[in-house]
TrEMBL record:
TM helices/strands, residue ranges: 20-37
Annotated membrane topology: Single-pass membrane protein; Single-pass type II membrane protein
Protein family per UniProt: Belongs to the ExbD/TolR family.
Molecular-function GO term, any one: transmembrane transporter activity
Pfam families in alphabetical order: ExbD (PF02472)
Protein name: Biopolymer transporter ExbD
Length: 133
């Protein structure tokens, strides 16, 4: 009787290997297909706009501070180097839209220079971030 009970317990075990294989494959799939957002890395006081509309989310953000500092991918960059840095980011993650988060007191000339650099990198869609009333 003891042998029969021992044999029943041995037959009742489940093989977990196929389930673990499927979970591992799903994990790899989700890691590969995930898109990461390249934040500017700083907070700016965006101007308020009554007619601001919600745009589809972009993957690359460029922030411009009040004192003229330009930030991309959590680091400060020179205005003339925005196109080169943007091309590097586009190689990692292609996108067709960039969002500029300019401080409400940022100089207009710096914002235009950044927009020129974005156009030079080959991106046609540029959005300026604003706060809704």
């Amino acid at each position: 009787m003891a042998r029969k009970r021992l044999r029943e317990e041995e037959e009742a075990t489940l093989d977990m290997t196929p389930m673990l294989d499927i979970v591992f494959i799903m994990l790899i799939f989700f890691i590969v297909t995930t898109s990461f957002v390249k934040e500017a890395g700083i907070d700016v006081n965006r101007p308020e706009a009554a007619q601001a509309t919600q745009k589809p989310s972009a993957n690359i953000f460029i922030a411009i501070r009040e004192n003229g500092e330009v930030w991309m991918d959590r680091r400060q960059v020179d205005v003339e180097r925005v196109a080169a840095n943007l091309e590097r980011l586009l190689a990692e993650q292609p996108t067709d839209m960039v969002v500029i988060q300019a401080d409400e007191n940022a100089r207009h000339g710096i914002v235009v220079k950044v927009m020129d650099q974005i156009k030079e990198a080959g991106i046609a869609q540029i959005s300026i971030a604003a706060e809704n009333d």
